[in-house]
């Protein structure tokens, strides 16, 4: 596979993984879901057309949000006569807050993934089965040979441990609340 194909594949993966975040970001700026969907599609087209401008190793989500914000501005300026939208200052304020919130949640998610990897294998498998595979607590309890109540208690302890680990990790990195 050539570098170009690898870069394209990586770009597609980044774009795909960012769809939910991009939609939420756009929807925070444009209150109507159908309009937000339309802007997301336009954003995706621009991102695809301009993907060669994205520098590997930089923050894809920040770049994508910048493109999305430009698409929101273009959309609202075309549609302003049909529907009231936020003025530019309000839109910029919402955009800044949303990007900070997104960065905060992204750092929490990264910390959570690292904390899950630190769990003992049995607890890590419990988390994998429950949250990645989607098994019910009842199914997991049966597999473990324990009661449903014991499985719920174990899950609660694991979640508490993960919460503490995430907070400690972010605090050590200077990214706490």
Automatic annotation (TrEMBL):
Matches recorded under InterPro entries: RNA_pol_sigma-70-like, RNA_pol_sigma-70_dom, RNA_pol_sigma70_ECF_RHOBA, RNA_pol_sigma70_r2, RNA_pol_sigma70_r4_t2, RNA_pol_sigma_r2, RNA_pol_sigma_r3/r4-like, WH-like_DNA-bd_sf
Superkingdom to which the source organism belongs: Bacteria
Boundaries of every RNA polymerase sigma-70 region domain copy: 16-79
Segments forming domain RNA polymerase sigma factor 70 region 4 type: 110-161
Keyword annotations from UniProtKB, A to Z: Sigma factor, Transcription, Transcription regulation
Entry's family note: Belongs to the sigma-70 factor family. ECF subfamily.
Alphabetized PANTHER family for the sequence: RNA POLYMERASE ECF-TYPE SIGMA FACTO, RNA POLYMERASE SIGMA FACTOR
NCBIfam families: Sig-70_gvs1, sigma70-ECF
Protein name: Sigma-70 family RNA polymerase sigma factor
Organism lineage string: Bacteria, Pseudomonadati, Planctomycetota, Planctomycetia, Pirellulales
